[in-house]
Amino acid sequence: MNHCEDHNMDKKMVPRTEQEIESIMKRLKRIEGQVRGVQKMVEDNRYCIDILVQISAITAALNKVGLNLLERHVSHCVSKAIREGSGEESIRELMDVIKQFSK
């Protein structure tokens, strides 16, 4: 067992499926394309409001990815930790990341 697997076991991680990884990667690549589009808009000296609308769309898309990951984490990893008796630590970690996410 390598260090990463050790770490994952300590964290009660439930590995993502290939389908979950593919879905997340597709969304992140779409967001990456949107960011490149905003860079081009800035280079082309486009109207500020148009750029801000695109930035708002990117922020919403990133938040959606984050919330989907958060939901999956709760229903898989936190749930597993609770069943296995380490729920308090997992919930504390979850609350810390929720606080970070909501800044």
TrEMBL record:
Please give one Pfam family short name: Trns_repr_metal
Tell me which Gene Ontology terms the entry assigns under biological process. Answer: negative regulation of DNA-templated transcription
What InterPro entries does this protein's entry cite? Metal_Tscrpt_repr, Metal_Tscrpt_repr_sf
Gene Ontology MF terms: DNA binding; metal ion binding
Give the Gene3D superfamilies listed for this entry: Metal-sensitive repressor, helix protomer (1.20.58.1000)
Positions in coiled-coil regions: none
Tell me which domain of life the UniProt entry assigns to the organism this sequence originates from.
Bacteria
Q: What is this protein called?
A: Transcriptional regulator
